[in-house]
Amino acid sequence: MANESTLRFGAQTDEVTSLLRIVNLVRTGEATTRPEIGRLTGLGRGVVSQRVDRAIDAGFLEDAELGPSSGGRAPRNLRFRSDQARIVVCALGALHIRVGITDLDGDVLAHEHRPWDIVRGPEATLDAAMALVDTLLGQTGDTPIWAVVVGVPGPVDFATGRPVAPPIMPGWSGHDVRARFEEHLDAPVWVDNDVNLLALSERARRRDHDADLVFCKIGSGIGAGLLSRGRLHRGANGAAGDIGHVRVLGSEEVCRCGKVGCLEAVASGWALVRDAERAIAAGDTGALAHLRAEGEALTPEMIMIAASHGDALAISLVQHSARIMGESIATLVNMFNPAVIVIGGAIASAGEVYLAEVRQRVYELAIPLATRDLQVVTSANDITEPIRGGAQLAIEQLFDTTFPRWFADGRPTAAGVLAAA
């Protein structure tokens, strides 16, 4: 039997390997009784019993109700103890902060939201996020925190948890987001691009752990989360999916990143607001002009609502964005060949007005084999999507990637989980 030191550093002895597999079989629902575990693992009855007893003693599993009998004594079901710890998720957006608490199954227990401009910088933003987290933790008891996930609206070096030259986050490049949360919450922390969390949320919602899926978020900025056989594709440095700054042929619009002709400068929410302001200044007299005359500051959401109510200017802006996005997504389809494209973000709230135009361009421009079985759909637009997605990232990291590193300690720690990465 491996000693505690060996277990802590993740040596894959037969006992440890089978023990961790049993916990994960019960956690995922693949096996919920000892006989089912035996059939799936090939382990003998006595070995299964020993491993299960150890998992129960360690607090990962517990006996539940009796299962159906197949002729003999009814087997006892096993249950993963998802209530033994909490996951904290903090999703930072361009104009908001959303935080949530989940159990180890990813079920959202509490969440909170506040408007916030991320250009206020990392110190003020993280202070505001911590205050929201502390409020929620005060409402959900003193259960231990096993993981923290932070989503940010920009490129992230996943290995270090530091944003890298994020175009809409001045002052954030290289900031140690992970350390701030580790110090405050005493738990391992993972930082990722916010659209990756949305892709994982969509995977969980579809219950498709082998999904080939692209989640395109079109809001203040534009980004894509790529799932290949259910796994996030981040690329060599974490920049995969950052389509917002690819060049749009013929465009001379200046982007917030300082370059010219970026997709974001043509098709994002802030680009639509800019173009609406230009049209109003040139004499448009529709619904958006009326709102502007009343002193309202235009937002992407206002444009989407006006488009859904038939405003000509809003419809033209939305359709233009959708055509440009469709062309860029068609390139992704040719290169990545996903089964599903999910369109999310504020602009996608225009619904079929937007989606129909995207579909048309994708099917016109992508190769027939790549579009043969392709679905192009809008997201569920659930406000807890980034919380659920962040929880999925934490669960994946805790139980698929790092479990052997911390199992012997009984709970994950930043030093035990991330230092060995």
TrEMBL record:
Gene3D superfamilies: 3.30.420.40, Winged helix-like DNA-binding domain superfamily/Winged helix DNA-binding domain. It holds the Pfam family ROK. InterPro entries: ATPase_NBD, ROK, ROK_cs, WH-like_DNA-bd_sf, WH_DNA-bd_sf. SUPFAM superfamilies: Actin-like ATPase domain (SSF53067), Winged helix' DNA-binding domain (SSF46785). Belongs to the ROK (NagC/XylR) family. This is ROK family transcriptional regulator. The lineage of its organism: Bacteria, Bacillati, Actinomycetota, Actinomycetes, Micrococcales.
